[in-house]
Each structure stands twice: as C-alpha cells, then as structure tokens.
Amino acid sequence: MEALLSLAFDNLSSYDGPKIKKGLKQVEGLLAPICLASAKTKKKQAALDDEHMQQKQKSTPKTLEELTDDPAFFEFFKLQEGFEWNIAQRLLDTLDRLLSRGSDGQNDLLIMSTLDLTQGVLLLHPPSKVLFAREKYMNLLLDLLEPVNCPAIQSATLLTLVVALIDTPQNTRSFESLDGLLTVTSIFKSRSTSREVKLKLVEFLYFYLMPETPSIPRADVRDSMPAMLQRSPSKLAKAFGNAPSGRKRRSSDDEPDFTLSSEEKQALLGRYLHNVDDLVRDLTAHTPFGGVVC
Prior knowledge:
The structure is a single chain. The protein is mainly alpha-helical. Helices cover 59% and strands 0% of the residues. The chain has 16 helices and no strands. α2 (17-35) runs parallel beside α8 (105-124) and α7 (87-100) packs antiparallel against α8 (105-124).
C-alpha cells in the first residue's frame, strides 16, 4: 500500500493537470476496494443473479462491521496516522495548488474530484478532520466558497465543509473564528448566487444550528493503540487493539472540547442573518437529518 500511495503522491504533487488527474485516480483506485464488498463474499448469491445484478453486486458498499475485520482497511487506517502517508493532507495541498491556477473547465473538474475524494477520506479516517482546526486548511475551504468559483465547486465545498465539521467542535470554532459565518451568509444573500448553491447553503445553516457533540467518540486509551485512533469511532476502534504504538499526543483531557448550544450558535448566526428565528422554527418542526448529526 505504501508503494501505491507513493506513486499517487508523486502525481498529486505535480503542477501538470494530467498527472494530478492520474494521482486522484490512483487514490480512488486504492480506496474503492476497501469500501466495496468483494464479489467473492457474495458468490452464491451472484450465481443466482443475471449479468446486470452481478455487476451491481461488485459495487455493494461494505458495512461498518465488515470494515473492522478487513485487513486492507486496518492497514489503511494505520498508515493515516503518520504525516508521510496521510491522504487527506496531500489532497488538501493539491487543492491549494489547483486553486492558485485560476478557473478553467479542466481545473474545475480536478478541484471537484479532489473535494469528492477528500470527503471520502475524512469519512474513512475521521481523525484526519483535525487538519481543519488549522487556519490554512479551513481558509482553503472558505476560499473555494467564493463566487469566483463555479456553482458546482461551491456546492462540493459546502458538502466537504459539513463532513469536516461533523462531530468536531474544534473545527466549527475554527470556522467561526475565520468569519466563516460571514462568508456563507454573504454568499447566501448575494443575488448572483445560483439557486443550487443557495439551497445547499440553507442545508448547511440547518446543519450548523444542530446540537453539537463533544467530539468524535473515542476508544479506551491504550498504549498499544495509535494516538489518533483513540479518537476513532468505537465500532472501528476494536479493529486496532493490537496495533503498534504511534506518535504521542496530548490526551483529550488536556484538550477540552469547546461546544456551543444551538441557542448560542443561533445568536452568532443572527449577527449576519435576520431570519434565523425562521430557520430555527423550521428546524424544530421538521427535524432534518433525523434530528441528529452522527
């Protein structure tokens, strides 16, 4: 896996569009087999299906329980602990370079592909979300939201931002401190913003107003478990009980999570948007996202 990542990272670090595209495909090719069920595991069932159903079966997503017993996922998760092999950081650095190249059709497609992959990596390895507590990377997402970018990029960025903020209050505080609320509400109020983006912005504001959880649920702290895994979801953590020790970090007891209530966030948002009460009433009445973000 290290050899495959090395090839992908070499291409992602290029300034040549085709090489960057190749690097993104290589990362996607590495992650897809981890996420998708093997046809062998469904061999008996596939034998009863027609050719169309067999093809569909090959792309069946794995369940969380299947991932915890998958050696490839185990290896992937361990590699993400180190700076050298962390995919999320490489993708964000690639985004930074792509953004500096200006806007054209091919570059926009590369940005959207990079954003899509970033979302997937953050979902597969939630501890990588800690990158967005850093000003550099949160500012990168805010820059991608600017109207100079096409609506498709703005929409993809909003989804990436949601993934980065879920169960990670420290990232939400970073978003707020960098005037993220001013950015999204200014775009929302602008007449030049497309209807598609405005709908995504309303969804984002609903999400922002949801109650916060203290952080990604963490497993029991053990010396035998890599430090970042101690913040991983408990259903995943059991897969790493015998993992070698990783680099040391301060425990979460030394890094308290600063959460805000929905009412406090409503007050913050009210500085920039006058109809926040309407959003809150709608949120209470219809409970989008099932009433929780998990």
